[in-house]
Amino acid sequence: MVATIKTESIEDFPTRLRETVTVVIDSDLPAVEKVTFDTLQKVKKLLMIISEHVPFEPKMSELWRQLSTDNELGLRMLYALEKAQVLGLLTSKAKNYKSLTKPDKIFLGNTNLMHALCPIIDKGNERETFFCNQLKANQEVTYPPKGDFMINDKYLFEVGGKGKTFDQIADLPDSYLAIDDTEIGHGNRIPLWLFGFLY
């Protein structure tokens, strides 16, 4: 008797991804963090709020008010979701998980999660989410005063489409553009797709 292999359709993928996120929150999170049922409900609400507004530049007091929580628990929830790779948190300094600091910008963990959880996909956010996800796998990524991303406290990147210019990071040392919709780079203009090889 020949065994049949069940394959999933592409249409089922977003649903399976949403189910996986639910398992992460309901099962994995309580296994590694001391959390109550009430906290798990707040984590789900937090993810819903962020999904509707990514990239999210949080006003923490407003966010905690919506969740009926305090700063300490709120930050613990954010960093737990980052450890689970559901979120990508960008801070101006390298993160220290012993001393949790307010993130300057919050992304979903990857572009697949964006397509599964976000009601509307913004192309610029999708590019930045891809770049952040690929670089965070093995580099230190922080939020710079100018530009989109600082890599290893040295390389400054601005992410954009084919028409992106250096205007926002002009004359800054070690600055680069990560450009979508282009196959070949030139000088400090690097095709965005190439960063997929870093993961």
Describe the structure.
With 199 residues, the protein is of the alpha/beta class. The protein folds into two domains: 11-112; 122-199, no CATH class. Helix content is 40%, strand content 14%. It is built from six helices and seven strands. It has helices at residues 13-32, 37-53, 60-67, 71-83, 111-117, 123-136; strands spanning 87-90, 105-108, 141-142, 149-151, 155-160, 175-179, 189-191. A five-stranded mixed sheet has the order 3-4-5-6-7, covered by helices on one side. The chain has a two-stranded antiparallel ribbon with strand order 1-2. A hairpin with a 3-residue loop joins β4 and β5 (155-160). The longest helix has 20 residues, at 13-32. The chain is globular, with a radius of gyration of 18 Å. The termini are far apart. The model has no long low-confidence stretch (mean pLDDT 87).
Main beta sheet:
5 strands, mixed
Helix content: 25-40%
The radius of gyration over CA amounts to 18 Å
Shape: globular
Low-confidence stretches: none
CA-CA gap between termini: 40 Å
Structural class call reads alpha/beta
Question: In order across it, which strands form the biggest sheet?
Answer: 3-4-5-6-7
Mean pLDDT: 87
Number of helices: 6
Quantity of strands, as a count = 7
The structural domain count equals: 2
Q: H/E element string?
A: HHHHEEHHEEEEE
Strand content: 5-15%
